[in-house]
């Protein structure tokens, strides 16, 4: 199973209706579904996340609330990955076209994790939690507002993808150009983003 296929499988996990502030009903079942998908992709990663399945429902709900608040910094990476995937199962239903100004999602308050350029070249951000989309200027870093072009870089990757990097705040933003790719495929874009960040970190992408 490729990473894009894993993201696609995770995006197909159903969850009870949820709105910010409401309890995460059936959190154990949703997380179990996430860990099952993880197991098909990477048994070791699944094993590291499986400890979450032993938690009481209340503890699990509290962790999902922390994931929603972006406060999972001290959890192991496998657990963070699983909790974010579970949170997305609840939040995806809220995803819609919206109006925003920066990397903060105007719908759920989460943070954009990927972007796309539409047929006219406008840049849209996509929320990493609920998949809402909104337009932002291409000339500024959406995470910190930097506009000096010598502080903003982008690296082409394949014909369709690019990775934006801001030297001021350190943020990176994977994007797909729909004029090349044709349609928006979020699981593939997110998988390409992991690859692009890895290549950037290991200095194999040339700007
Ligand atoms: Zn959102
Ligand atoms: Zn920045």
Shape: globular
Strand content: 15-25%
**What fold name goes in the CATH topology slot of the largest domain?**
FdhE-like fold
The figure for the number of domains is 2
Q: What about the largest sheet? A: 6 strands, mixed
The whole-angstrom Rg is: 17 Å
Strand order in space, largest sheet = 3-2-1-6-5-4
Poorly predicted parts: none
Query: Which structural category fits the helices and strands?
Result: alpha+beta
What descriptive keywords fit this protein?
207 residues, alpha+beta, FdhE-like fold, 2 domains, six-stranded mixed sheet, 7 helices, globular, binds zinc ion
Produce the secondary structure layout.
Layout: H1 3-10, H2 27-41, H3 43-50, H4 57-68, H5 77-91, E1 112-117, E2 123-127, E3 133-136, E4 152-157, E5 161-166, E6 172-177, H6 178-181, H7 186-201
Parallel strand pairs: 1-6
Antiparallel strand pairs: 1-2, 2-3, 4-5, 5-6
Helix pairs in contact: 1-2, 1-7, 2-3, 2-5, 3-5, 4-5
What does the model show?
The chain is of the alpha+beta class and 207 residues long. The protein has 2 domains: 3-93, no CATH class; 96-201, FdhE-like domain (FdhE-like fold, Alpha-Beta Complex). It is built from 7 helices and 6 strands; from the N terminus they run H-H-H-H-H-E-E-E-E-E-E-H-H. It has helices spanning 3-10, 27-41, 43-50, 57-68, 77-91, 178-181, 186-201; strands at 112-117, 123-127, 133-136, 152-157, 161-166, 172-177. Strands 3-2-1-6-5-4 form a 6-stranded mixed β-sheet. Strand 1 (112-117) and strand 2 form a beta hairpin. Helix 4 crosses helix 5. The radius of gyration is 17 Å and the shape is globular. The model has no long low-confidence stretch (mean pLDDT 94). Bound molecules: zinc ion (2 copies).
């Amino acid at each position: 199973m490729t990473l894009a296929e894993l993201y696609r499988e995770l995006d197909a996990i159903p969850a009870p209706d949820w709105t910010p502030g409401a309890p995460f009903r059936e959190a154990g079942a949703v997380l179990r579904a996430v860990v099952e998908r993880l197991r098909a992709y990477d048994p070791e990663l699944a094993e590291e996340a499986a400890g979450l399945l032993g938690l009481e429902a209340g503890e699990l709900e509290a962790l999902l609330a922390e994931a929603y608040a972006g406060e999972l910094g001290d959890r192991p990476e496998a657990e963070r990955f699983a909790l974010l995937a579970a949170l997305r199962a609840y939040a995806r239903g809220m995803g819609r076209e919206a109006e925003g100004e920066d990397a903060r999602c105007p719908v759920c308050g989460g943070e954009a994790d990927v972007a796309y350029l539409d047929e006219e070249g406008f840049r849209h951000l996509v929320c990493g939690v609920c998949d809402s989309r909104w337009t932002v200027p291409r000339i500024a870093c959406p995470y910190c507002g930097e506009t000096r072009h010598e502080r903003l870089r982008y690296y082409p990757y394949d014909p369709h993808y690019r990775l934006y990097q801001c030297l001021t705040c350190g943020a990176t933003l994977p994007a797909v150009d729909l004029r090349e790719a044709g349609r928006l495929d979020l699981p593939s874009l997110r998988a390409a983003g992991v690859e692009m960040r890895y290549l950037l970190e290991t200095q194999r992408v040339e700007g």
